[in-house]
């Protein structure tokens, strides 16, 4: 075994970290055999090693790049049709000409970088992330999932961080995030309205109203994936955020330009492709709830984040969710003659409660399928 120890708030503290994987190498690729066969191994971080077990993934190669990412220009008339096509094929697309000022994005990113550069005890005082929101490190959710990241998880009320959420306490950071959240929420509304138009649903706000009405359950996440230089040249990378689908209607993501996001082009997760970074664009994921509303016509995309060995990745994700009492069932106007619903009807609150009891990689919709 190689011994290497890391603290998450810095790049490399010492050469005492523990990489737990079989030292049985494939002579052709110089990747641990266990990593090549199962696509995962384990990295164990200090404090305490019994808990912090993070999977390793085969490092993406040049042929793993998803060059055919659908690009939707929100400024042109054909955007609605392009969105529907992308949602049916991949459940994922990139948005350009979205109207969000570059300064708004840069200010939020700059403030986030400053926050995560603080000493660990200072950041820890902004936690825990669960159940009410705040700072988290390595632990994702409440059911044992781990990742090489630290993050802020924030509740959103209307178009800003909820008053009940005391984090972040820094006024400049909070103002920058609120400016960003208000802007990206408008993008989400435009996308949802374009979806309704493309699907032929009336009124145009049939989907977006679920996000804009009082009591909508919106969440905002800021993720920081520190570099992991100890893995450079080993053919494997630490898992930043494990494979999962998003439970909400849609999620809107923007990163600082460091690569790492991957999507599964096959439902069984056997073909993972890296998404080229673009710090000036937004990436939209279809969530589980939208898959149900369209009776499976739109696909909730499975995705994950692989860490970069030398560069930090900072990402912002806005999750557009409906009110807890919102009924989730296939929209009648989308059901063709004789077509039956594939899902049992549920409320967003019921689904959210069930989702919190699962692991990241679980198929949350399975228990609601007919």
Automatic annotation (TrEMBL):
Q: What is this protein called?
A: gibberellin 2beta-dioxygenase
EC identifiers of the protein: 1.14.11.13
A single Gene Ontology MF term assigned here is: gibberellin 2-beta-dioxygenase activity
Keywords, A to Z, come to:
Dioxygenase, Iron, Metal-binding, Oxidoreductase
As its record notes, the protein acts as a catalyst of:
gibberellin A1 + 2-oxoglutarate + O2 = gibberellin A8 + succinate + CO2
Kindly give the Pfam families that the UniProt entry links to this protein.
2OG-FeII_Oxy, DIOX_N
| Family statement drawn from the similarity comment of this UniProt entry | Belongs to the iron/ascorbate-dependent oxidoreductase family. GA2OX subfamily.
Q: Which Gene3D superfamilies match?
A: B-lactam Antibiotic, Isopenicillin N Synthase, Chain (2.60.120.330)
Cofactor(s) needed: L-ascorbate
Q: Which residues form the Fe2OG dioxygenase domain?
A: 215-322
Q: Which organism is it from?
A: Digitaria exilis
């Amino acid at each position: 075994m190689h011994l290497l120890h890391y603290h998450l708030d810095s790049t490399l503290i010492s050469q005492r970290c523990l990489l737990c994987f079989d030292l049985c190498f494939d002579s052709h690729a110089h990747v641990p055999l266990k990593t090549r066969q199962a696509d995962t191994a384990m990295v164990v971080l200090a404090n305490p090693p019994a808990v912090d077990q993070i999977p390793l993934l085969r490092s993406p190669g040049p042929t793993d790049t998803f060059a055919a990412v659908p690009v939707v220009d929100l400024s042109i008339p054909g955007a609605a049709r392009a969105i529907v096509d992308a949602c049916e094929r991949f459940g994922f697309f990139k948005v350009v000409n979205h109207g969000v000022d570059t300064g708004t994005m840069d200010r939020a990113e700059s403030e986030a970088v400053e926050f995560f550069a603080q000493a660990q005890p200072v950041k820890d005082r902004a936690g825990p992330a669960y159940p009410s929101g705040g700072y988290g490190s390595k632990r994702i959710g409440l059911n044992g999932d781990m990742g090489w990241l630290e993050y802020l998880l924030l509740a959103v009320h209307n178009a800003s961080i909820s008053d009940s959420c005391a984090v972040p306490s820094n006024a400049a950071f909070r103002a920058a995030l609120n400016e960003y959240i208000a802007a990206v929420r408008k993008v989400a509304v435009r996308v949802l309205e374009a979806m309704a138009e493309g699907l032929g649903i009336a009124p145009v706000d049939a989907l977006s109203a679920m996000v804009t009405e009082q009591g909508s359950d919106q969440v905002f996440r800021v993720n920081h994936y520190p570099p992991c230089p100890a893995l450079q040249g080993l053919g494997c990378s630490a898992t930043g955020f494990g494979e999962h689908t998003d439970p909400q209607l849609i999620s809107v993501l923007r990163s600082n330009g460091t690569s790492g996001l991957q999507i599964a082009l096959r439902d069984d997760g056997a073909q993972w492709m890296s998404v080229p970074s673009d710090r000036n664009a937004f990436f939209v994921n279809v969530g589980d709830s939208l898959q149900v509303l369209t009776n499976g016509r739109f696909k909730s995309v499975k995705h994950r984040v692989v860490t970069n060995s030398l560069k930090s990745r900072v990402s912002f994700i806005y999750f557009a969710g409906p009110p807890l009492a919102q009924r989730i069932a296939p929209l009648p106007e989308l059901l063709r003659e004789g077509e039956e619903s594939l899902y049992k009807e549920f409320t967003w609150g019921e689904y959210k409660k069930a989702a919190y009891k699962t692991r990241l990689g679980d198929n949350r919709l399975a228990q609601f399928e007919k």
